[in-house]
Amino acid sequence: MIGQGLTALQETGSTRGMFARAANLATELECGTLVLDRGGKILGCGEFAEEIFRTSPARLLGRRISDFIAGLSLGRSSPSYSARYLDYLCTNGEWHKFDAKDAGGQRFTVELILSHGVAEGREVFFLTARRPGEQAGS
Q1: How high is the mean pLDDT of the chain?
Q2: For residue 54, what are the contacts with CB-CB under 8 A and spacing of at least 6?
């Protein structure tokens, strides 16, 4: 379901509109979606992403995903190597567990699944996250 929606978004054109629609795509599944660039910078966030990380879009947008999810970006490596790691995580379509922290510094486990697409010649990653054992709206 998510993959089909992302394919449709890739065909619609507008980057700004795509980020907004993509970030809210998983709302029905009570998962939070972040749109990332190849370097791991957060370009868009959905409503449930705000709840998962317990912060506002203003505190998420423009930040590196590594500020919230340890081990997702390869810190001191080159941006292209980090992007290849994100590509690798997209390959199997399975949920991956990572240690994360919310905006208040509280640590928790997050499960995520990644996919990628292209908008106006720019590669982006769609990170869909959930807290295991906890529904995003609770």
Answers
A1: 75
A2: 102, 103, 104, 106
